Amino acid sequence: MLRIGPYSAWVVVDGAGLETHCVESSHHNRTTSTSGWISSEAGKKFSVYWSNAVRDVDLEATVFIDGVECNRHVMLAASDFPHRPDTVRVSYTRTSDFTRRDFFFSVVQVIDDNEYLPSVDYNKFGVITVELWRLRVNRVVRQQLQYDPSKIPMLEFQVLPEQTKKGGTHHVRFGKEYSASRPIVDMVDGQKLDKAPYMSFSFKYRPRGLLE
After folding, report:
1. The whole model's pTM is what?
2. To which H or E segment does residue 209 belong?
């Protein structure tokens, strides 16, 4: 688990939170950040949780995996919405009105081809990040989730050139698509208050053998 005051985030596999190692914290450009290392296991499904124990401000969370935006969710302040939850779980991306795909750790394959240069940001590869943004809320409507097909992220099987030294490491890919009805959610109209995240939590994941 990573924690900044009443705010926290963690990654869960098989119902248990993964231990976070070598935790570091910093403050830059009005963003308080914390990061640490977790062990990943190929073929395992995982979930990302984040929590605000006091719910003192409206927050929009953005979840990035390997540099790809995979989920956005608003947690409303307790002053106006006292019965809303203080913890959010993210374990999938919706792919249509009635389907979704879960997140899985997977092994990166490498090839001996120096001319193969995929569009991968190696600074964000192997990292799960939760950014929390302060939000000015204009309106909240309780209704079925509105699916936007233009915003489907892509977490697919990765093949990287051998020169990247990524052989044996992991990345995240989607599992098989399955049926799921649209939930009833708070559809929020609002604007971000800041030009940088309020809080940032980053989990750098590697196979257990590499971490040791």
Report:
1. 0.88
2. helix 208-211
Integer angstrom CA distances of residue 187 from 31, 60, 110, 146:
26, 12, 42, 8
In tens, the pLDDT along 126-159 reads 899 999 999 999 999 988 887 776 666 667 655 5
Q: pLDDT (tens digit, 9 = 90+) per residue, 160-183?
A: 555 555 555 888 989 999 999 888
Please give the sequence-ordered ranges of beta strands (E in DSSP) within 14-126, or none if there are none.
16-17, 21-28, 31-40, 47-52, 59-65, 68-75, 87-90, 92-96, 99-107, 109-111
Q: Cα torsion at 13, 17, 22, 23 (round to 10°)? A: 120
Q: What is the mean pLDDT of each run of 10 residues along the chain (212 residues)?
A: 96 96 92 96 96 95 92 92 94 88 86 57 82 95 78 63 60 91 87 95 91 72
Given this model, what pLDDT does residue 122 score?
Answer: 62
CB-based contacts of 148, cutoff 8 Å, min separation 6: none
| Other residues' Cβ atoms within 10 Å of the Cβ of residue 207 | 16
Q: What's the CA gap between 21 and 14, in Å, rounded?
A: 19
Token representation of residue 100: 């979704």
Tokens at 79, concatenated: 């002053």
Q: From CA 207, how far away is CA 212, in angstroms rounded?
A: 9
